[in-house]
Design a protein that fits this description.
Elements lengths: L1 E6 L5 H14 L4 E6 L5 H4 L15 H9 L31 H6 L1 E2 L5 E4 L18 H9 L7 E6 L3 H6 L7 E6 L3 H15 L5 E8 L2 H11 L3 E6 L2 H7 L11 H15 L5 H24 L23
Parallel strand pairs: 1-5, 1-6, 2-4, 2-5, 6-7, 7-8
Antiparallel strand pairs: 3-4
Helix pairs in contact: 1-10, 3-5
The structure holds adenosine-5'-triphosphate (ATP) and magnesium ion.
Length: 320
């Protein structure tokens, strides 16, 4: 299952991504946490020292593309592969339970179990539709080639910005948690996201954060309605983690820990919709090809789409 944490700057995306990844890893399943935000802080939040961070995916796009395209005859070279280029027959697919060059080369261990992958730092200039070298594109390629199952988790700490809408990254998840503080700005980002996501059947749930009391919950409830899944309150334990004083999950207030359990349960309850996933991969690839990618690569990238390729776990059909 793949989940993104999005929200306004400072709302708590990184904090909740890290807590959720640690909590989920503790339940036993493999967890990959990916830092795809402009400000790269997820490593720190997962207790990884600066010098133990993994190699940044965004700085090795060619290596990643070279691996993923495998011997897919529709992709002429790594240079012709853009962030939306979908897998086809011959592409290398990724699995969380099996070693491969991408996980071996770009994932680092963290103290509480999740593996960490990072895009590496990027700037506003790296964002935008016409960005061939988009660092976040590495995450999109990863998710497009990943075949994940129930009980396996990818948690992405991400900006809620226009880039993920333009490229289709926001459609690559089974669920998106929108982190909202109980403020007008916090719920404003929610409305934008919801309006965009609604056209694409993208499931979104709101996680209230830094809530101080019943008025805050009431405010969120009023503006977000039934999309409000759960709230985490403003937490002394989280503040202490931020200050580097202590970091055990067991220090978390019981109601905040229970809220993490609600998030996991909600994610586990999502139906994986591989047909939607495949349809939208194609849809956004065609959109990008027309908007800029054909021009950037000098090829007609619509030819990269393999109509016979089936997204998701493929069943081997037995004869007779
Ligand atoms: N429930 C909470 N209780 C107390 N402090 C919190 C809580 N959630 C987040 N914080 C604090 O709020 C600050 C911002 O959180 P965080 O860095 O996770 O936000 P972000 O959305 O990832 O921000 P950015 O947009 O800068 O990446 C941090 O100092 C964090 O420790
Ligand atoms: Mg952050």
């Amino acid at each position: 299952m793949r989940v993104a944490f999005v929200g306004k700057g400072g709302s708590g995306k990184t904090t909740l991504s890290a807590l959720f990844a640690r909590y989920t890893a503790r339940q036993g399943g493999p967890v990959v946490a990916i830092d795809a935000d402009i400000n790269q802080h997820l490593g720190m939040a997962l207790g990884v020292e600066e010098d133990a961070l993994p190699r940044p995916m965004g700085a090795h796009l060619t290596e990643i593309k070279e691996y993923l395209r495998g011997d897919n005859p529709r992709i002429s070279s790594a240079a012709a592969m853009v962030k939306t280029t979908p897998p086809g027959r011959g592409s290398r697919l990724l699995r969380l339970e099996e070693p491969d060059a991408i996980h071996a080369g770009f994932a680092a261990a963290t103290p509480d179990g999740p593996k960490l992958m990072v895009t590496g730092p990027f700037s506003e200039d790296d964002l935008g539709v016409a960005c061939y070298h988009s660092k976040v594109g590495a995450v999109e390629l990863y998710l497009n080639h990943l075949v994940d199952h129930a009980g396996e988790y990818v948690v992405v700490d991400m900006t809620a910005g226009a880039d993920s809408f333009a490229s289709g990254l926001f459609t690559r998840f089974d669920l998106t948690f929108l982190v909202a503080e109980p403020t007008r700005q916090g719920v404003g980002v929610y409305r934008q996201y919801r309006d965009y996501a609604a056209d694409y059947d993208v499931p979104v749930a709101v996680v209230g954060n830094k809530v101080h009391g019943p008025e805050d919950v009431e405010f969120l409830r009023e503006h977000v309605g039934d999309d409000l899944l759960v709230c985490l309150r403003h937490s002394a334990a989280i503040r202490a983690m931020e200050q580097g004083r202590r970091s055990g999950l067991e220090e978390l207030e019981p109601d905040n820990a229970a809220a993490l359990g609600v998030l996991l349960k909600h994610l586990d309850a999502q139906e994986k919709d591989w047909p939607r996933f495949g349809r939208q991969a194609v849809q956004f690839h065609l959109k990008n090809a027309g908007a800029w990618a054909n021009r950037a690569t000098g090829e007609d990238l619509s030819a990269q789409i393999d109509p016979e390729f089936v997204f998701g776990p493929t069943r081997v059909s037995l004869p007779g």
